[in-house]
Design brief:
The chain is of the alpha/beta class and 318 residues long. The chain is built from eight helices and 17 strands. The longest helix is centred in the first third of the chain and has 17 residues. Bound molecules: flavin-adenine dinucleotide. The site of flavin-adenine dinucleotide has 28 residues, from α6, α7, β16 and α8.
Length: 318
Amino acid sequence: MADILVVLEVRDGKVRPASLQALGAARGLADARGGRVLALATEAVEPDLEALGGAGADEVLVAGAEAHSPDGAAATAVRVAGEEGADLVLLAATIRGRDLCGRIAAGLEAGFAPDCTALEADGEGLLFERPVYAGKARMQVRIRTPKAVASLRPNFFQPAGRSHSATRRDVPAEEGKARVVEMKGRQEGRPDVAEARIIVSGGRGLGGPENWPLLEALADALPGAALGASRAVVDAGWRPHSEQVGQTGKTVSPELYIAVGISGAIQHLAGMSTSKVIVAINKDAEAPIFQHATYGVVGDALEILPKLTEALKAAQAG
Ligand SMILES: Cc1cc2nc3c(=O)[nH]c(=O)nc-3n(C[C@H](O)[C@H](O)[C@H](O)COP(=O)(O)OP(=O)(O)OC[C@H]3O[C@@H](n4cnc5c(N)ncnc54)[C@H](O)[C@@H]3O)c2cc1C
């Protein structure tokens, strides 16, 4: 049976959690249908073979380009997939994953299933599942080309969690025309909003950037929480685009999504409606977000946020 190639995303010299989750998904598939799981690092990284093997990789291929290059990384993945005879290429459905997937699919003349939340092998081949219409429906996708490319939504799959050390092999990197020189707008000390298990997200209802410390204090009281934002807030320049959740921002699926002063426009829901638990705080009881919320609090966020933060701290102290 053909192998599965997982293209790893590396940030600050570390493989991102969403890539470890993709390795876990690949492992499950390889165990069911046979074949190896190959992990490809397209940029310089000293791979943790225990961690990558434990997540699901049999072998780690290090192409080791000095900096990330979208066209270079895609060309490397296309070449390696061909050389290794991989019939499936998986990536995390992050911003970078989105950028690479189409390029790799085009290079392999392969069908492409973006932003999948489930995948399985059945008698007819590979079957992918993905949310559509802002999470209101799920679509099953059958790819009929000899090779397939899919991106996997973060937090829907788990690393394999096995005790195994992968082997390492160095492979040449393809030159790209474009090269990433700097990443801006990151939340220091907080996880990326696309991968976080808890997100505290703010909207126009917060009134202005001067009230963001209230949101940050709540995030600080929830270990591992990231900050998110609606587009209205990003367009107003209150927060960076890297925090924007929604159709033209990031797609997130945390365990807990707290939407504060966010109305729940369809374009915002498109990015967060697959969150496991949604808590909405809004002073308008008719706000659309309440139709999707697991728990709703009707009231003024500026009054509720400090009380909620204090209650959380007290609960943790007790
Ligand atoms: C093509 C396109 C793409 C888009 N992509 C995105 C996207 O990726 N992400 C996104 O978020 N939006 C996106 N939008 C914009 C989207 O349609 C909404 O305009 C936006 O989500 C609204 O942001 P908001 O909820 O913060 O603001 P508003 O809609 O203004 O809502 C503010 C909410 O805060 C409440 N409120 C006010 N004061 C308080 C208070 N003191 N306490 C508690 N609640 C209060 C109000 O009742 C209201 O519900 C897109 C739009 C288009 C056309």
